[in-house]
Amino acid sequence: MATPTTQSSAGSDAVTDDPEAVVPPTDDLSDDERALLVDNLRFVLDGRWRAIRDNVREQSNRADLLPDPSLTLDEARARILEVMRELSSNGFASAGFATDHGGTGDVGASITAIEMLGYADLSLMVKAGVQWGLFGGAVENLGTERHHKRYVSDIIDLDLLGCFAMTETGHGSNVQALETTATYDAETQEFVVNSPTPSARKDYIGGAAQHARVAAVFAQLVTTGPGEDAQSYGVHCFVVPIRDDDGNDLPGVTTSDCGYKGGLAGVDNGRIMFDNVRIPAENLLNRYADVAEDGTYSSPIENSNRRFFTMLGTLIRGRVSVAATAGAAGRKALTLATRYGLIRKQFEAPDADDEILVMDYLGHQRKLLPLIAKSYAIACAQNEITAELHEVQSPSGDADAARQRQLESDAAGLKAYSTWHASHAINISREACGGAGYLDENQVSIMRGDIDVFTTFEGDNTVLTQLVAKELLSAYADDVQGLSTTGWVRFIAGMARDVVVEKTAVRQVVQTLLEGSDEDTEKSNLTNRGTQIRLFRNREDHLVRTCAQRLRKALDDENDAFEVFNNAQDHLLKVGQARTERMVLESFIQVINDCDSRAAAQVLGKVCDLFVYSALEADLSWFLMHRHVSVERAKAIRRGVNELCLELRPHARTLVDAFGIPEELLTAPMLEHG
Amino acid sequence: MATPTTQSSAGSDAVTDDPEAVVPPTDDLSDDERALLVDNLRFVLDGRWRAIRDNVREQSNRADLLPDPSLTLDEARARILEVMRELSSNGFASAGFATDHGGTGDVGASITAIEMLGYADLSLMVKAGVQWGLFGGAVENLGTERHHKRYVSDIIDLDLLGCFAMTETGHGSNVQALETTATYDAETQEFVVNSPTPSARKDYIGGAAQHARVAAVFAQLVTTGPGEDAQSYGVHCFVVPIRDDDGNDLPGVTTSDCGYKGGLAGVDNGRIMFDNVRIPAENLLNRYADVAEDGTYSSPIENSNRRFFTMLGTLIRGRVSVAATAGAAGRKALTLATRYGLIRKQFEAPDADDEILVMDYLGHQRKLLPLIAKSYAIACAQNEITAELHEVQSPSGDADAARQRQLESDAAGLKAYSTWHASHAINISREACGGAGYLDENQVSIMRGDIDVFTTFEGDNTVLTQLVAKELLSAYADDVQGLSTTGWVRFIAGMARDVVVEKTAVRQVVQTLLEGSDEDTEKSNLTNRGTQIRLFRNREDHLVRTCAQRLRKALDDENDAFEVFNNAQDHLLKVGQARTERMVLESFIQVINDCDSRAAAQVLGKVCDLFVYSALEADLSWFLMHRHVSVERAKAIRRGVNELCLELRPHARTLVDAFGIPEELLTAPMLEHG
């Protein structure tokens, strides 16, 4: 840890002092130059799958794709299904499936395309994500050839509508404790799927209320091998038909409707109860486990925990898509609010007849610009995670277990970070648009309702953040997954002291920047990238080290292991947040480093500074308390946010234009009159 | 300002060390004792108008009053109007109007009753607030006998449905710049009401889309006195009929519908355009200004700014009601989330078959308990503001201008503080309920949509917070209201140095506590009330002083006055927040001081500690940066929040039960199975 000096001249932290970072104000740019800058920034933000983005942009530049609040629930659901059929007929879904299953096998393209739907209608994204990502992904990744042959092309074409029946009324986060059972009956070679209790009911399942004909059901597999007692082998996934062609529940299946929700009107969330429903044995998605005719259970992965988490891990695509789409939704809301702020005036300008643009108020800039900066940073990290997932899941990919594990942790962290950001950004955007923001015709209020559940579905954000921390503290050790809280605390306590090491390779650009910066962060300019990385890394390391020490010490003092864990829970959550924010920063820096356009790189540099300064400001008490920044520097950080807002103000429109949101999808009457 | 020592033993800040503050854990209480504790807490929270609260509780304990998301927009609006008619026939609205106008003249009762509607349906509260509070209040407070006689009893009985047409498409916060004109025509003794531009359109007006027959229209009064040129006298209010008995627009009036919104489905927000609509001269609400037959303008208040702000000031009731209702909504969401957290289990308990109640996780406690504590504090401050408004507006009341001015500022601050809190608390409550929280059947998602606009209507929170700061910095000087930003900055610069004084009387209990505490806050225990008050007061004083200095200095340096103001806007907003939070704390302390039950006072003391600790934690970087707390103390504050959460955990149910929300209004299927 750096020991900051308390003396630091205010000047050295002034963000305008860095000659390298001078940005040409937009006012000085010709229209052509500005357009070029927008293009260059968009090129950077679009990332590797930019061709897909342009493709979806072209297809989706239609205001009729926007949510229509006047539709009834049934109409809204039918409408989304209709649009999905249109997408499907345009080949939208093929990328998500392997070529030998009938797809085109481009995972990154698939996720990017889903993300782009977030600019149109979040219901569409969720419904598409359920059908092709979750349900299709379960069949693709947990099934074997017999399932691929039988289902995949129908899933792509929407000839088979499915749902993903994991969550139960009683269990969301704790999937290992699901109550639904699938018991093998050797006599008939069937599994009997059953919901033994009211809390075993499948709940909140997208598609279960109306459209799904089939469900990928997660249930405890129970079987009796020859000469054995019946035994449970943990949660597995089964394809279970739930409705006939007319949409009626099949015998033993009782579906119901979750009804009206806080948003996502176009998604038919529902519930399913199973009363000893019989399915053929072959409906077990048997990539990681199988049951022989005689009831003998077998699996290539002996350890049942590892098997469970391996299966779960293959389903990571949903989480990555949700994070990506939240990013898109946040960008769209910020674009609407920024455009409004650039035409809306209020209160008289001094010595002038006209009133002041609300975007010219520092308070307004401080509301929107730091969120735009964070959106840039998140977009860069998201592109990197999407690309990593593509590599790991592509047939040619290197599916190394450690790399998969790292990806799962990073994706969990980014999902929480990105969806909380989006929820907050949309909320602030709504407020920044005042009454106009509350009218559905201007979209932001609809987005507010739609995004809300993103923070708790596909993994509750608090649980995910904690997961990141637990993985980090236990250094991604094997066999830690699935340990009870107690077991995990004991594991940490038993680890060699200070064994916690950075396992992932430090990327070259970060290494170089670190080497070129002073170890004493206080001595270096705060706009120095190496210093910025150091501050984020030092925070993370400090939190990891002290959290581990705290857990060990508390356990040494013979406290109850759950109590030890629980007393440190806020510390643990902070570890996860700090970790993810550091990862996001480093992704952003990588992207700036790789940017070919000098003007774009300069603007991105300022945006990165604002991201860093406002992230530091948001956590300033921690940095002060743990003496990672001095009081003088803390004050400079607050001033720096203001100065950076002022500097980026002329670029506000450029920054949001670079998101490349199709114009028709930004339809909002408030933008016509201000 | 205190100069904290950096040495402070951790032990001295431990919240459990104070023997005076020991609370009997709920587990030790018998059912009777717990019920009594709930009653005593409720007695405190209910405040002066507790009889009204009980009355509304009794009347509203019906699940059919809850919002029904399955209704169409038209049905939802009709339903709310129907419930209002029921309320009206039960005498609900009489309290808001003076006895000699046909009411019962109990302002405090009126506001309290409206607040209680927030437990049922926020649409109902808003629609009732528009009819009786805003429209009725305009007639009552800006009109004279001829208006009272003609309108008030019809308003109470809903024989006259009105709306409050202040906001325009182009102007919300800056009411002085409204564009609608009302030009006096001496020949016909009429006013001609006109919307000269598209941005002059009245917008977002509750009731304007469908139900209102009459509008209280705010417009620039223009008249030509004998021998004078036509002159504008600023914004005044006029009663303008807008629809006939069949609901058709009257000639020259064009209404339209704002349509679907982020929430408040039962409120028919709409727009109005006036094309030279003629109304009788007597429709000017002429308490503060009149126009003679010959066009001569007269007013008892010569200064046009003061006149305008006096008129606005009488309308404060809406703002107070909105703050109060937001408080109620926040309490309800927290109650639902807390009850869910007390039955919902997730993840296995160590060495036990059962899973852990989510409320037993520190992370979950940290989400909900500090918000409950803040709700307590706000409820106390709200009761005080309501009572003060009652005193100021009651016929027998002392309508001293300074007191009115102070009330306006306090109400503005509390409105912003309370509605931001409610919006945040409902958001967190939704997340704390996971998927269940997103289903409308469990209410929280509906409340989330409904509360959203509370932060920007009846005064945008940012603008209001700034208003509090501006008033405070200019020491409530006359003639500051209505000054342009430039003018205000120049005024501050011209004030005698350090003239900024606390104008309001320090209440006795605060005086006593301050006297009994060490001036050096660092030397005293943090659970000491005097120390708590000092920390809040020192922050406020420090911010006010440095903000004034900063403005003066910047202007001395001959900067542009708007720039000076704008560069300090974040500072100014912080002044307003700190001011309001100090006011809230002192209200809470007063209430605890006055509490008769020792057990209730003990629990309230812990709740107050949690409010203080979490408020300090939320602003810890400021306290550290300005050396109002040491690093050691800062760490003790973080620990203190955890410890207080743990201590209050057994009281969680008691604390929310004490809100006294009618059971039927807490109907939520998620509370049946967990």
Discrete helix count of chain A: 23
CATH superfamily of the largest domain in chain A: Butyryl-CoA Dehydrogenase, subunit A, domain 3
Low-confidence stretches of chain A: 1-12, 16-21
Architecture of the largest domain in chain A, according to CATH? Up-down Bundle
Tell me the structural class of chain A.
alpha+beta
Largest sheet of chain A: 6 strands, mixed
CATH class of the largest domain in chain A: Mainly Alpha
The dominant shape of chain A is: globular
Rg of chain A, Å, rounded: 26 Å
What is the number of domains of chain A?
2
Number of strands of chain A: 13
How much β-strand is present in the residues of chain A? 5-15%
The CATH topology of the largest domain in chain A is Butyryl-CoA Dehydrogenase, subunit A, domain 3
Annotate the secondary structure layout:
The structure is a homodimer of 674-residue chains.
Chain A: H1 31-46, H2 50-60, H3 73-89, H4 107-117, H5 122-142, H6 145-157, E1 162-165, E2 181-185, E3 190-194, E4 202-206, E5 214-223, E6 231-241, E7 253-257, E8 269-274, E9 277-280, E10 290-291, E11 297-298, H7 304-314, H8 316-341, E12 345-348, E13 355-357, H9 362-393, H10 401-432, H11 434-438, H12 444-451, H13 461-473, H14 485-494, H15 508-515, H16 529-556, H17 561-567, H18 569-594, H19 598-618, H20 620-625, H21 631-648, H22 652-657, H23 670-673
Parallel strand pairs in A: 1-5, 2-5
Antiparallel strand pairs in A: 2-3, 3-9, 4-8, 5-6, 7-8, 10-11, 12-13
Helix pairs in contact in A: 1-19, 2-4, 3-5, 4-5, 4-8, 4-9, 5-6, 5-8, 8-9, 8-10, 9-10, 9-18, 9-19, 9-21, 10-12, 10-13, 10-18, 13-18, 14-16, 14-17, 15-16, 16-18, 18-19, 19-21
